[in-house]
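Recap slide: Gluconate 2-dehydrogenase alpha chain, sequence and predicted structure.
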Amino acid sequence: MAKKLPKTDVVIIGVGWAGGIIASELTKQGLSVVGLERGKERVTEDYYMAHDELRYALRYDLMQDLSKETITFRGNEKIRALPMRQYGSFLLGEGVGGAGVHWNGQTYRFLPYDFEIRSMTEERYGKDKIPPGMMIQDWGITYDKLEPYFDKFEKMAGISGEVNPLAGKRSNDYPTPPMLHTPSMKMFVEAAKKLNLHPYTVPSANLSESYTNPDGISRAACQYCGYCERFGCEYGAKADPVVTVIPVAKKTGKFEIRTHSYVRRILHSGGKATGVMYTDMTTGEDIEQPADIVVSTGYVFNNTRLMLLSKIGKPYDPATGKGVIGKNYAYQVIKGNAVGFFDDQKFNLFAGAGSLGVCVDDYNGDNFDHSDLKFIHGGNIAHTFTGQRPIQNNPVPEDSPRWGKEFKANSLKYANSVLTIGSQGSSMPFRHHYLDLDPTYKDAFGDPLIRITFDFEEQDRELARYLSDRCGDIMKEMGTDRILKMKELGPYEITTYQSTHNTGGVIMGASPDTSAVNNYMQMWDMENLFVIGASAFPHNSGYNPTGTVGALAYRAAEGIVQYSKKGGLLV
């Protein structure tokens, strides 16, 4: 029998960006909060002088241990899913701060089109533009309604940027100026303008200058060391929960973090959550933590799996299209890119930052006419300067041999003469793309693993080809004809890294018939349970998801405070 602890006002499952924001906002309002994190404690000092590519980038020191829990994957329902035994397509963070510790820091706002995608697509192109099986739906909230929460997240994190001329209206400028431009970034801007595009600097959680946020948290400026993605920041210059929201929650005296606490079930009775059951990984003891309000703030797979294991909400059935838990799993299309080889120019490719770059949104969302195109939405196109670390980077032209004298010669010749323009394409949900519990494979506790059923569709192939061609246009304008582009998007391959931008599974919307949570991230059928994260996205946009996760978390925090006082479903 599990050991039962005294009740708390709120229990949070996962202490990453969403969990940290919820803890900060609720404790400031006087609520007592317990945060359960299955990984270990983390502090900035852990990363002092730790530019270790082998440890962090290749051996995944900050990531979840796949030998204890992983996911299973299949491309379609006709084949058996198999466990992901080593990291490839995406990386699952673990520990205090979650994936917010090892992210690059690119902090976009989704477009107004994203939040009303079905209505706006049908209005402009007609219902026939949406192919059979595509499950896009409006989010139950508009960009204008969410804009103040985007602003609040950006001020908390100190986002450095300049206004995107093709995005939704802003109530304020970014709190800090854009990052510095490298020579190749200037080349991109000039080329884009010649093509009548609208370039702007990537919005960055890597601070361009020292900054003190509205909570009084001060952080230093980025040193452009090139160790962001897969790494913690030794300067605290990269906004992450450990150096922003978590200290604010701790200062109130109302927040307790319990590390190595693996939540296995949300407990409920009579249509309400009563708390959680977790295992203390240091002792093996099962513990029950009662709470008035339960908030699940885990990663996409964890949020969805916990709902299914706890038997909360109706599981999605792809045969009928009914049910909501596991529905609308989406990913990202990022293969459309162009690599340019410059014979007579050298660049300092080693320096950089996770969010150092310039981009255009002329081919994102519905910023361009799709009438004659065989896809909807689009993607952000960017030239980023994230730092080319030595072990994982050795680009050579396509016609080079893969070994020998010529390979070595080209490796040296192009080591600092290769530039990349990449695209980050949106991902639309389809009826046969979903998450459920695997019937065969289990974790270390004997609980079923989460199973992904997903593959790229014709929508994705058309989008990838289009974005790759547009990347090539800009690269050619930058001054080289020696360009390597994607020719064809093949089947989805889980063994090759693409992005950690998984979405869906516990999606938001305007009706319990088509969504699991409302626009405050409150479960329709369990009013004291809130599920926050990219699991709420009904589709994925052509951007990194963190900025939108942050905005939704701030709105959810406001709703939870309101619920703690009045109860009931929030409207």
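The longest strand covers residues 286-296.
The radius of gyration is 23 Å.
(End of recap.)
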